[in-house]
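User: I'm designing a mutation panel for Coenzyme F390 synthetase and want to avoid disrupting the core. Could you give me a predicted structure to guide residue selection? Please restate the sequence first so the numbering is unambiguous.

Assistant: Good idea. Sequence first, for numbering, then the predicted C-alpha cells:
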Amino acid sequence: MNTGEVLRRIVFNLLDASKGGKLQKLKEVNKREIVEGVTEEYMERRLNTLLDYVKKNSAFYRKHPEWKELKDFPVMTKGDFIEHYDEVLVDHYQEQGKLYRLSTSGSTGTPFTVLCDADKMSRINMNFISCMELNGFRMGMKRGEFRAWIKGKNTISKWKSFKNNLIMVDISNMSDESLEKICRDIEKKKIQVLVPYSSALTALTQYLKRTGRDISHWQVEMIYTMGEALPQETYDLSKELFGFTPVRTYGNNENGFIAVQLGEDPEYSIDMFNYYPEILKMDCDEPAEPGELGRIVVTDYYNKTFPMVRYDTGDTGKMRIDRDEKGRIHGKYVEIYGRRGSLMYNTKGEPLSIHVFMNTLLKFEGVVYQARCIQWGEKEYELLVNADRTKLNVEELLAAYRHYLGEDAEIRVTYVEEIPIQASGKFMVCENKWDGRK
C-alpha cells in the first residue's frame, strides 16, 4: 500500500463526505446487492418506475400507450437506438448542456454514443469500483488500462490520469518490442492493477513465460479483464505467474459493468441492482429456455437521459436465475459466448464458444503469431494466418481447427503479414460472415 493510494482514498472519502457521502453509500449498496441478491419487490418497482417514466418523457415510447409490461416493449439493437436517437432521448434533456458521453469504438460495426446525466455517471463509476472491491481492489490503487489509445479520440488528460491514478498502456501493437516496453512501464511506474482485454493478457502472459522475465519486483496485486472471453489457459497461466487469479467481467461502454466473477466462481454474478437481464432466443424475441444459448438483453434502470429498455447487446450467453432461502433473487451468466458476429458454428450447426479458438491458438505459441477464423457458409471457413511459415505445420493447424469445426469443414488458408487489433484494443480470433446464422 503506497502513499499515493492512501492519499487518493482519503481525498475521495473527504470530498464525498462533504456532499453527504452519496457515492460511498451507492458503492456499498451496489456491492451488497451483487452478493446478496435483490428482492422481487425491488425488481418490479424499478421496472415499473422506469417504464412509466419513459412513456411520459420519451417521444419514442410515448407514442405507444399500449405497451404496458416489459414484454410489450420492443427489443432494441444498437442500430435501432441510432435510428430513433432523438426520439428516445428524454424531452427535458434535449437542450441540457451538462451531460456525459458513453461511447463505443465501433470495433464490431457501428460507433455509438449514449448520453447520461451525473447520477447515471456516478452509478457507472461506483459500479466499476464495487465490482473491483468485491475482488480485493482498494480505492486509489494505481491501475494500468490496456487500450489502443488514440490521441484526440480516447486519451485522457495528465490531470485526470494523476487524479484517478490511471496509466494509459497502449496496445496498438503487440510485438515483442512493444510487450517489452509494457513490462518496463509496469515495473517503473509501479502499477498495482492491470485492466487488459483478454487478448492483451494472453499476449502478455505468453511473452512473460517465453522470455522467463523476472516479475518479482512488480507491484501488481490484481488483474481485471475486460472484453472477449478469457481462455482457461490464460487464466491458469496468469495464476501461475502472478500468484493470483484474474477477475473476469462482462459489460459495455453504453451501460457499464453488467456482471462479474467473484473469487474463482466460474459463473458471472449479474448486477441485478442496476439492470434487468433477459436471455432471448436467437431467432425471435421469446425468452430462451433455462440453459439455452440466447441473446443477452438488458434493461438499464438508471439512465434517465437516454433510456435503454430491452437493449440487445449483440452478445450471446446462457443465464440462470435462482432464489435463495431468504427469497432474494440472484442472476448468473453461466457462460458468455461473445458477440453474435463472433459466434461460430460447427458443420453440424452447433454453436462454439470463442474460448475454443483462443485455446487453439495457444497450442501454436511461437509459431502462429495471429489467426482469425472466418465462417463464410455452413461448412465453409477461411483461416487468416500470420505465422512463421518455416516452422508452421499447416496440416497440424488445420487438424486443430477441424477438431472443433468438424472433420468435414472446408478450410482455406490465407497468409497475411498482420491482422490488425480493433480500435477498442480487442483482437477478434473468429468472425461469422455467414448470413444463414447471423
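For picking mutation sites, this is relevant: The first strand starts at residue 100 and ends at 104. The two ends are 49 Å apart (CA to CA).
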